[in-house]
Amino acid sequence: MPAPAFELPAALEAREPPEARGLARDEVRLMVATRSDGAVRHAQFRDLPELLAPGDLVVVNVSATVPAAVAARRADGTVVRVHFATRAPRLDDCWRVIELRSADGARPARAPVREPERITLAGGRATLELIAPYASGARLMLARFHGDGSVDDYLERHGQPIRYSHVAGHPPLAAYQNVYATAPGSAEMASAGRPFTPELITRLAARGVPVAPITLHAGVSSPERHEPPFPEQYEVPAATARLVAATRGSGGRVIAVGTTVVRALETAAGPGGAIAAGGGWTALVITPERRGLHVVDGLITGWHEPEASHLQVLEAAAGTALLAHCYREALAHGYLWHEFGDSHLILP
User: Fold this and answer.
1) What's the pLDDT score for residue 91?
2) Whose CA is closest to 310, among 258, 236, 232?
3) Residue 1 pLDDT > 50, yes or no?
C-alpha cells in the first residue's frame, strides 16, 4: 500500500522556530505510536526519557548545517538562488551537486539549464560551471566551483541557510542547528533532532539511555519534488557500532533520531542485524518492501509532506496501518509540520 495520502492545511505549517512561539526546543508536541498494540498517545518532547527504557540507545546524526544557499546571476542576467546540495561522489571538493531555484528560493528556476553554462555567484569573484544533470535527473546539476579558496570557505562568507516558502522571515543559521551538531556538511538540517537540548540529553543519560553519534551529510529535499534520496556521505564510528551491538545483545532498543540515522545504520548493518563500523557514500533507499529494518527498532522523526520519500522509511518502521492512523491523528490534533514543527516517536 502507498504511504498515507493527505492534504496539508497551510495552518499546520510551522512558519517559525518554536522559540519564536514562546516554547523551548523540547516543548514541542510529541506523538508516541507503539507498533505492538497500535496505541497512539500525546506528549511533549521533553517527556522522552520517561518514554524510553534503561538499556535503550538513542543514535543521533552530528552533521551540522552549512549555509548552503547563495544568490547568483545567470548569463542572461536572471537572478537565481543556488542550493549547494552535496559534494560529488568520487570527485574533488571543487565538484558539487547543486540546484538552481528562483531568486527567493521558493521554487525551481524557470528556464532550463543549458549545460555547459557558467553562472556568477554572490561576491562577484566566484563562478559555478554547470556541467551536466546529476544522476539522470532534471533538478540537480553537477557543477565545478571556480574561486579563491574552498567551497566551504566561500559558503562561510557568502552563504545563508536554505529556507523554503513556508518559513516566515529569515531565521539565522543557528536556528537550523541541532545542539549536538559538530561536523559541518549538511545542506539542510537533520531536523528530527532539533528538539533535543543539553538538559534532555543529560536526563537520558541519567535514565540509563546513552546517546551515540553517526554522521550523514544530508542533501537538499525540495518540497515540490518527491524523489528518492540521492547518495549521501556517512560514517558509523566503531564506538557507535559497538554500542548498537551491545544494546541489541542485551535486549535494548536502538532508537534512530531521523531518517538520516536510519539510512546510515541500515547501510552498515547486515540482514541479520550485525553492524560494523564504516563510512563512505550510501545509495540505500529504504521502502516498505524491504520488510522491516535490520538494526533500528524505533524512530524519532518530524511530520513529512504527502508523498515525501521519508514516509517510505516511516512506513518500513511503523507499518502502513499505524502510520496512516498517526497522520490522521496529527491532522486532527493540529500537530505542526516541517523543520520547526512537532515530533513523532515510533516504538516497536
Assistant:
1) 87
2) 258
3) no
In the Cβ-directed half-sphere of 68, how many Cα atoms lie within 13 Å?
29
Describe the chain by its helix, strand, coil percentages, rounded to 5.
Answer: 25, 30, 45
Of 252, 260, 242, residue with least CA distance to 299: 260
Nearest by Cα to 211 from 178, 255, 248: 255
* pLDDT at 29 > cutoff 60: yes
Ramachandran assignment for 299, one of left (phi > 0), alpha (psi -120 to 50 degrees), beta (any other): beta
pLDDT tens digits for 246-290?
A: 999 999 999 999 999 999 999 999 878 899 999 999 998 887 776
Residue 138: CB atoms within 10 Å: 11
Same domain for 49 and 147?
no
- Contact in structure between 140 and 115 (CB atoms under 8 Å): no
- The answer to whether the beta carbons of residues 346 and 314 sit under 8 Å apart is yes
45 and 74, same domain (yes or no): no
For 68, 132, 220, the CA distances from 155, given in Å and listed in that order, are: 6, 22, 15
Domain limits at 96? 69-158
Give the dihedral sign, CA 220/221/223/226. Answer: positive
Distance CA 256, CA 61 (A): 9
Kindly report the CATH number assigned to the domain that includes residue 141. Answer: 2.40.10.240
d(CA 114, CA 62): 37
As a whole number of angstroms, the distance between CA 16 and CA 270 comes to 40
> Do residue 342 and residue 274 come from a single domain?
yes
Cα distance between residue 187 and residue 85, in whole Å:
5
Give a yes or no: residue 166 inside a domain.
no
pLDDT digits 0-9 by tens, 236-246: 999 999 999 99
∠ CA 81-87-92 to the nearest 5 degrees?
120
